[in-house]
Amino acid sequence: MAHSRKAVILDTGVLSYVVDKPGKNLTVTNAQNWLLDLLSRGIDVYTPEICDYELRRELIRTSKQASITRLDTLISGTNYSISF
Predict the structure, then answer these.
(1) Is the distance from CB of 52 to CB of 15 less than 8 angstroms?
(2) Which residues of 41-56 are buried (b: 16+ CB within 10 A; e: fewer)?
(3) Distance (Å, rounded) from C-alpha 39 to C-alpha 17?
(4) Three-class DSSP labels, the chain
(5) pTM score, two decimals?
(6) What's the rounded Cα separation, in Å, for the pair 56 and 3?
(7) Cβ-Cβ contacts under 8 Å for 28 (sequence gap 6 or more)
(8) What residues are paired with 44 via a beta bridge?
(9) In this predicted model, what pLDDT tens digit does every residue of 4-46 receive, in sequence order?
(10) 16 in Cβ contact with 32 (< 8 Å)
């Protein structure tokens, strides 16, 4: 029996919660904890390239540099990947 690997694909909405200010509200906290749990269990996390672009564009437009930094950190420091 072949082992299948689990993966989760994040859309722009969920991705925006994940990179928002920690503790901003319960939705943000839940999304961030959920992602940390996925990564700690070795589950691959992906987002379509267009979602990264859309979110990054909005973060730049609204001058949310801290969220841009968290997005960059997520991309460089985990098994998070941009795909599709």
Answers:
(1) yes
(2) eeebbbbbeebbeebb
(3) 16
(4) CCCCCCEEECCHHHHHHHCCCCCCCHHHHHHHHHHHHHHHCCCEEEEEHHHHHHHHHHHHHCCCHHHHHHHHHHHHHCCCEEEC
(5) 0.84
(6) 35
(7) 17, 20, 21, 22
(8) 7
(9) 788 898 999 999 999 999 999 999 999 999 999 998 998 888 8
(10) no
